[in-house]
Amino acid sequence: MKRLVLLRHGQSSWNLENRFTGWQDVDLSDQGREEAYAAGQLLAQHDFRFDWVYTSVQKRAIRTTWITLDALDQMWAPITNDWRLNERHYGALTGLDKAETAQKYGSEQVHVWRRSYATPPPPMSGDDPRHPRFDPRYAGLRPEWLPATESLKDTLERVMPYWKSKIIPRLHDNNTLLISAHGNSLRALIKHLNAISDEAITSLEIPTGEPLIYELEDDLTVVQSYYLREGV
Ligand SMILES: O=C(O)[C@H](O)COP(=O)(O)O
């Protein structure tokens, strides 16, 4: 039996302020740090020991990883960071207040931008200083890989090749992996793992800082998936 644990980062400062975040590199709020520590304590109570850890190149997920591993006393666990596990890029909505944007464009339109499978938000201008082409952490990537906006489908299309080429082989060689990432990179992965339809994925929400466990056969068939904390 293999185990894969998916963990959405703890509450970020922009989750707290209700702002669209995407590729903006905001940190955890105090509550987010507490959630990450509590996630590690819960995993420790259930004797999880991670053979490998995957996270994004965004500090809210990286710090969640560090705090969770600290609470587990497993800071020695190998960690791989990859941009393909980043949050979906929120395009021109990045930084805007979610409630104000719903007032301006209507809550139906905002729901489509946030939760539809294939409709991306309006793109960020290529001249915007927040565009990933100006960010040194992406300097080694092909320009056509750098998004100015992403739908969940676009996100899935960059997460899947990474899952297949890097994480699956590691899962074949090891028993227990942690993927510490973001609401929408994890929704993409869950859509694949649970074979969720394009329609049904629109209502899937992932809480911050709650370990989601996948038990897998040796051939990686999903046996069951569940939140570790009762009542989540
Ligand atoms: O990027 C963000 O704003 C959040 O992390 C996820 O946002 P969502 O709930 O609108 O998908």
Quick summary:
Helix content is 36%, strand content 13%.
What is the helix content? 25-40%
Count of folded domains = 1
Q: CA-to-CA gap between the ends?
A: 24 Å
CATH level-4 homologous superfamily? Phosphoglycerate mutase-like
Across the major sheet, the strand order is 3-2-4-1-5-6
What's the rounded overall pLDDT mean?
Answer: 97
Overall geometric form? globular
CATH topology: Rossmann fold
Give start-end ranges of low-pLDDT stretches. none
Largest beta-sheet details: 6 strands, mixed
How big a fraction of the residues is strand? 5-15%
Q: What's the helix count?
A: 7
Rg value: 17 Å
What are the secondary-structure elements, in order, as H or E?
Answer: EHHEHEHHHEHEE
Task: Report on the architecture of this protein.
Strands 3-2-4-1-5-6 form a 6-stranded mixed beta sheet. The longest helix has 22 residues. It is built from 7 helices and 6 strands. A hairpin with a 5-residue loop joins strand 5 and strand 6. With 232 residues, it is an alpha/beta fold. It has a single domain, classed as Phosphoglycerate mutase-like (Rossmann fold, 3-Layer(aba) Sandwich). The site of 3-phosphoglyceric acid has 9 residues, from helix 7.
